[in-house]
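To: structure subgroup
Subject: Chain for Friday's discussion

All,

I'm putting the inputs and outputs inline so they're searchable in the archive.
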Amino acid sequence: MTIYVDIVLIENLIMNYIILLTTGLILKIKIKHIRLIIASLLGAVYSVVAYGNFLEIYSSFILKIVLSIIIVYIAYYPQSVRKMCKEILFFYLISFVFGGAAFSLIYLVKPQDILMKNGLFLGTYPLKTVILASIVAFFIIITAFAIIKSKFSKKDMVCEIEIKLNNKIIKAEALIDTGNMLKEPITNTPVVVIEHTILYDSMPKEILNHLEDIIGGDFGRIPEEIKNKYVSRLKLIPFSSLGKQNGMLIGIKPEYLKIIKEEQINVEKNVIIGIYDKSLTKRGEYRAIIGMEFI
C-alpha cells in the first residue's frame, strides 16, 4: 500500500483543526482560527515525522505530552496553569472520542485500506472520506456534550428551596453554584442570593424597589415606620460576581432556609438572604443561587 506524505499531512491538519475547534467551542474559548491552524499544522508535521520514523525520540511518550501542551498553548493561549490543565484535559478527551468516531466511520467505508504504523492510522481511502468522517464526528461530539451538559445541569445543579421570612414562606428553584462562596463579612455567615421580586409577600416593596438607594445611604423614599423596623436588620454584603465587580447586596436574616433535593432535606438557620434587584436568568430557570456547602 502506497502512502503519500502530503496526504498524511493534510489528513492530520484537518483532523487536528476540527479537534481543536471542537474543544474551543465546548469550553467557550474565544477562537482565533490562525492560531488553530498553526497548532494543527504543528501536530500534522509531527505525524509526518512519526510516520517516517526519522528519529526514535519522536515516538516517546514524554514528547507527545510536551507536544500536546505546546499545541494547546498555541491554539488557545491560556492565561493560567489551571486553564491550561483544563484545556489539555478536554483536548485529550475530545481527541479520544473523535478518534474513535472518525475511525469507525472510515472503517465502515473502506476497512481493507486501513493500516497502523508508529501509532498512526493510515490508508488509501479518499481524502473526502476523512473530511466527511471529521464533520460527522464533530457534530456527534458537540451534540453529545450539549445533551450531557443539559441533563447534568437540570438534574444535579438545581434544587428547590424554602425560605421563612417574617412568618411568610417563599419557595423557589435555586442553582447550586460550586463557585458561590459569598459570605456576610462581619459574621462570616453564608449567603443565598435571591431575586427581589419573589420577596414581595414577605418584605415591604418600598425596600425591595429601592435597594440601590438604600445601599447608597438614601432612605428618603422609605416611610419612617418601615425604616425604623428594618434598618437595623439589613446588612451590606460585598460581592464581585453577577456581572458586576465590587458590588453590594442588601441582606437580611430569615427564620430558616430549607433545601430540598431529591429525597434529602436540609434546614439551615445560620444563613443570610442576599437580595438581587435583577433577574438571575432570562427564562427564569432558577430564581436563587446557593453554594455547595448547603448540600
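Points worth raising on Friday:
DSSP finds eight helices and twelve strands in the chain.
The longest helix spans residues 127-156.

D.
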